[in-house]
Specification:
By secondary structure, this protein is α/β, with parallel strands linked by helices. The relative contact order is 0.18. It has a five-stranded parallel sheet, with helices on both faces. It contains six helices and five strands; from the N terminus they run E-H-E-H-E-H-E-H-E-H-H. The protein is globular.
């Protein structure tokens, strides 16, 4: 599985912990496209960059990190084909994949600690879209883009 990760200035250290955790899992390729310095970084730019890579199919899933996760989520969802969620618990992360076929996870470095974030990331990555009755709902959501 190929994962792309992006962040703004508020989540540089947070990102390093998430990347280390991802790299400890077998079968994942992780690419960092986020900010690596504390300058004023614009989160919409990183959201669009990561979202474009996921929407094109170049990467299977994306992770976006900022202070609250909210801004990244809003910006990511503007990209056609993206279903991004901001999440602060493992159950929501799991259900977002199972029921909504979410393809980008957004986390807030000021909202969740790194240990909880790792659990959320694992729940997101380990879950699979269930299809069935959920597929029709996801198709309706995606039709809104048209």
């Amino acid at each position: 599985m190929k994962i792309v990760i992006g962040n703004d200035h508020a989540a540089i250290e947070f990102k390093q912990e998430i990347i280390a955790h991802l790299q400890s899992r077998e079968g994942l390729k992780v690419v960092n496209l986020g900010a690596n310095s504390k300058g004023d970084m614009e989160y919409p730019d990183y959201a669009v960059l990561v979202s474009s890579k996921v929407a094109s199919g170049e990467y299977d899933l994306g992770i976006l990190l900022c202070g609250a996760g909210i801004g990244m989520s809003i910006a990511a969802n503007k990209v056609r084909g993206i279903r991004a969620l901001v999440c602060s618990d493992p159950c929501s992360a799991k259900l977002s994949r199972q029921h909504n076929n979410a393809n980008i996870l957004c986390l807030g470095s000021r909202i969740v600690g790194s240990e909880l974030a790792k659990t959320i990331v694992d729940a997101f990555l380990d879950a699979e879209f269930e299809g069935g009755r959920h597929k029709a709902r996801v198709d309706k959501i995606m039709a809104i883009e048209k």
